[in-house]
Amino acid sequence: MPFIVEATDKPNSAALRERVRPAHIAYLEANLDKLLAAGAKLDDDGMTAIGSVYVIATDSREAAEAFVAADPFVTEGVLGNIIATRWRKAIFDHQSFIPKT
Prior knowledge:
By secondary structure, the chain is of the alpha+beta class. The chain has three helices and six strands, in the order βαββααβββ.
């Protein structure tokens, strides 16, 4: 069962986020086999990144946490307040995965 990992940018980290973003993107693209989804959390303006969300294809909390811990956004100090939660897919990409009882 996958994990959703949600993280919030540390205060005043916007410039650092921009500098580290190419390494972050390279890390994600090198690990596509581990990701069901990933992307930035945005402020209400729809432009300003305020954190990140990952949906990681693993049954292990330790593996999910290790994956995020190795992301340049974490190793370089962009992200903080990281929370990993097990996730059960019910609706995804306009499709229902809810078992019929």
